[in-house]
Design goal:
15 strands, about 240 residues, mainly beta, Thrombin, subunit H, 6-stranded antiparallel beta barrel, single chain
Amino acid sequence: MTKTSRVEQSAVYGKEMSTYPLQALLDSRTVVEKDGYVSTGLLTHVEGEMLEIEMSEFKSFHLGDPVHLTLYSPVGIQRLQSTVIAKAEGSLAVLLPPKSLAGLEEKREANRIEVRLDGRLQPSVRANQAEGAADEEPPAVFKTKNVSLSGIGFETVHNVKLRIGAIVPAVVSMGFELSCHIEIVRSGTEGEFCFYGARFVELNELQARMLRAFLIREQVSNYYQAKERRKALARM
């Protein structure tokens, strides 16, 4: 996501309303409250549905704690209810719920998480394959390259060819079986593989909740692993 200090304007219900990217919140002094206990830190990372707050009193908070945040940011004072979703030495990660900050939701996009997951295209995919595809092709399996709330990027071997616009039944294994339909929106070739970008078609409420929970866990895990790697490199 591109960094910018510019505050954009958009008309909403006949009024001028400020909108801004997530990065406008970086380096905001942040007050974190729970059950009458108050501590202050600095917001140092913001992406997707996660905020990281560096603070010396991180040990006073625990996973799952509901917290109230007050952010003193360059785009104004922002307040929201959140939950502690991860801890590391010197910092907390908290949830950034959808539509939780005034002016933010207009600039927010589905966050793509790079993750390798097994998946398979159901047998009826053959009706959506490109013209000339052989009927005797083997079961269509794939590996994801990235996943978001809105769709997936995945790769298959060359003998599985899908046309743009095809709606395909698929199953993705992410600790649970996400059985869904995906619409192919782009394609390309990478070495011996075909790459496809697809959007989810009408996930139900339970599927959407489980997918969101999976993505938050992956995002937090990836972020803190990368942070530990940077620390290790700095010590070398």
